[in-house]
Amino acid sequence: MTRSIPLIVTLLACAFLLIPIIQSVLAGLTVSYFRGLSSGLTLKWVGQVWELYSGSIFLSIGLALACLVVTLILGVPAAYALARNPGRASRVLEEFISLPLAIPGLALALALLQLYGGWSDFRTSWLFILVGHVLYTLPFMVRSVLSVLAAIDLKSLEEGAATLGAGPARRFIDIVVPNAMPGILAGALTVVTLSIGEFNLTWMLHTPLLKTLPVGLADSYASMRLEVASAYTLVFFVMIVPLLMAMQWASARAQRIMQ
Amino acid sequence: MRQSHFLTVCMLPLAIFTLAFLAIPIGRLILASGESDAGWAIYLRILQTPRYLSTLMQTVVVSLAVTVAALAISTTAGLYLVRNRFTGRNVLLSILTLPLAFPGVVVGFMIILLGGRQGLVNQILPGHWVFAYSITGLFLGYLYFSIPRVLLTVMAAAEKIDPALEEAAKTLGAPAHRIVLDVLLPALAPALIAAGAIAFATAMGAFGTAFTLATDIDVLPMVIYTEFTLSANIAMASALSVVLGLVTWVLLLIARNMSGATIAAGG
User: Fold this and answer.
1) What is the per-residue pLDDT for A140?
2) Which of A31, A168, B213, B241 could make an SS bond with B6 (beta carbons 3.0 to 4.6 A apart)?
3) Quick one: closest CA in B to A116, which residue?
4) Which residues of A touch B265 (CB under 8 A)?
5) Closest residue on chain A to B236 (Cα)
6) CB contact under 8 A, B92 and A10
7) Interface mutation vs chain A, best among B33, B36, B102, most A CBs within 10 Å
8) How far apart are CA A104 and CA A94, in angstroms?
9) What angle do CA B61, B113, B228 make, to 5 degrees?
10) pLDDT at residue A17 greater than cutoff 90
11) For position B260, what pLDDT does the model report?
């Protein structure tokens, strides 16, 4: 009897996580949630979500891609510089850019609002939300690239290239980037996944004209009927689950290379 | 271009971004917290105002309870999944890690579907259990997103434990519970500290779930939000944010020094 307790706990935990997801998917596809499946299946609610919230969905995709570009430009060269200069200063810097992982998004959003809230062109532009997303996702990119770079013998590779006459920029493009690619890929998928789901900062930074997908979700939970809220959640699942699976595959692959 | 110059150029964009959008805003936030009539005594006022103090306590208690529950459930399930291979194992694993990237609002909605007025439990047992909007709902919501995070950390650590240790204990005649207590848990301790710290920090700062569920529960992020948006009490919102940020950051730092693992919160 006692031997089966771990299995029971595992199954109960699965049920706890999965049942509401199934409920949400079903509610988003049934004609009436109260009458259940017997009322029939429909795509009406998904269609309604598309009419109401497609703008939010496209804004989120655009933001996630912009966030990816910025984190690549800021994060990959910086991870390389940190990998080539492993020392106390680099550790402190890495710790500092990782602060948004520890400090709640709400606090960071308040900080940004107080400094830049009065600059209304910036405050009302999508770039303001982008800054929040970059702050939150950047440490994931830097750490992912840095951990792969730390596992390979970068110095010898670069010295080899240097004796053949390659300059620093050339070595970065031809040696560092290809070697870091598994880390870049894992980081990129993490950045896109997290940016699409980001709410804590975005709720404070968004304006009524700039609602991202999760902001729209909160909005639909508060004001729409259960079927519409569920259909919107279903749309979110369809977007996030493949990304999540790709992200886990890519980080497992990066982990293998590090070992 | 010399190597050292190139490395400086590589660091520059990140350094400028971090200075402009992280360092200076945090500095501004800290200064803003001292700008009310109370000045820096505002931090003393947090401790003297029953509403803030009880909110702070309530947030800490819920977060601690979630941490303990998530550790217990995820360690049990994680050890089970690492040590047993069976058909369907990967399905269970996928289910348990699925909510990893769900935003807090979605987790809140999941809890409403379970325990709301139109939720599953209230449909099966009408009129008995509507728990979504209470502290129980909040606890379950936080547990929902903590389980995957803790599970992944525990499983990564459990896979690294040398099976020879367990074998040795078995041949020496140790019963199953002694093996868990004397062999597995000590080996897992660093991972459990790291995972527990993430779970606690995430719960302390969780805004989306509380925002969806907490119509009449006070947790720190909700109080910060209402102070800022409804009361326009910017100094107090800032001071509470500083306290919340400092508590979570210091905690994660201590946990990392104790466990040596790189960890990440979020959500």
Assistant:
1) 95
2) A168
3) B25
4) 101-102
5) A110
6) yes
7) B102
8) 18
9) 50
10) yes
11) 61
Q: Note the ipTM here.
A: 0.90
pLDDT tens for each residue of A67-98 = 999 999 999 999 999 998 888 888 888 889 99
The nearest CA of chain B is from the CA of A200 a distance in Å of 6
CA dist A137 and A120 (Å) reads: 25
Over residues A203-230, mean pLDDT: 91
Q: Which residues of A touch B206 (CB under 8 A)?
A: 104, 200
pLDDT of residue B198 exceeding 70: yes
Structure letter (DSSP) for residue B184: I
Output the pTM of the full model. 0.91
What average pLDDT is seen over chain B? 88
Angstrom distance (rounded) from CA B223 to CA B233: 11
Residue of A nearest to B211 (CA): A218
pLDDT in tens, B206-262: 999 999 997 777 899 999 999 998 888 899 999 999 999 998 888 888 888 887 654
Q: Are B165 and B178 in contact (CB under 8 A)?
A: no
**Shortest alpha-carbon distance between residue A175 and chain B (Å):** 14
Inter-chain touch B77–A80, beta carbons under 8 Å: no
Is 50 exceeded by the pLDDT of residue B266? no
Amino acid at B125: L
Q: What string of DSSP letters covers B94-110?
A: HHHHGGGG--HHHHHHH
Residue B253, token pair as written in the block: 């730092």
- Mutation target vs A (from B36, B90, B95; most A CBs, 10 A cutoff): B95
Residue B219 burial (10 A CB sphere; 0-12, 13-18, 19+): buried
Q: Tell me the per-residue pLDDT of A123-138, one tens digit each, with 9 for 90 and over.
A: 999 999 999 999 999 9
What residues does B99 pair with on adjacent strands?
Answer: none
- Residue B165: band (very low, low, confident or very high) from pLDDT cuts 50, 70, 90: confident
Is B22 close to A77, i.e. CB distance below 8 A?
Answer: no
CA-based nearest distance A18→chain B, Å? 7
Amino acid letter, residue A163: T
